[in-house]
Design a protein that fits this description.
By secondary structure, the chain is mainly alpha-helical. Helix content is 77%, strand content 0%. Helix 1 packs antiparallel against helix 2 and helix 1 packs antiparallel against helix 5. It binds fe (ii) ion (2 copies). One fe (ii) ion binds next to helix 1, helix 2 and helix 6.
Length: 160
């Protein structure tokens, strides 16, 4: 599918909104889990998602428009109200939700990479940016999975 400029801008605005939502989400999670290592990781992830917000914004501006926030894009991904997720105190559930969101981001970055590749907008610059964001989301997902598995191992063990 060859992408036109409006379609590219609207997809980039979707990512812009998602990345902004993730900055807020990870910031709030870093506060909820401030007494454990996961809290530090969430804080670092919020910073990385902010870099994604910034690099996507710069791309949208290069295309001659301003980034536009399209509201809450997290609720449709996780099937629950984003506001409800923000205050969650159970790390197990938080990690599961984070994985869902990161995997949706990866799926959509991959799709956009494939669509942009053969379009007139498939500059090396844009391809590299999308690929690098994808890789960051992949690394985030893997850390969440590792942590989740650690929690599950503890949950299914017996303390004598
Ligand atoms: Fe991101
Ligand atoms: Fe991420």
């Amino acid at each position: 599918m060859a992408l036109n400029k409006d379609q590219l801008v609207s997809k980039l605005n979707w990512f812009y909104s998602l990345e902004l939502n993730q900055v807020d989400l990870y910031k709030s999670q870093s506060k909820s889990f401030s007494n454990e290592y996961a809290g530090l990781v969430f804080e670092k992830l919020a910073e990385i998602e902010q870099l994604h917000v910034d690099n996507i914004s710069a791309k949208i501006r290069e295309l001659g428009t301003s980034p536009t926030k399209i509201g809450d894009v997290i609720s449709p991904i996780v099937g629950s109200i984003a506001g409800k997720i923000i205050g969650m105190k159970d790390l197990h559930s938080v990690l599961k939700i984070n994985i869902m969101i990161e995997q949706k981001a990866m799926k959509d970055y991959k799709e956009l990479i494939n669509n942009v590749k053969n379009s007139q907008y498939g500059s090396n610059d844009l391809m590299k940016l999308l690929t690098q964001n994808f890789i960051d989301e992949n690394l985030h997902t893997e850390w969440f999975k590792t942590k989740l598995s650690e929690i599950q191992t503890l949950e299914f063990s017996i303390k004598p």
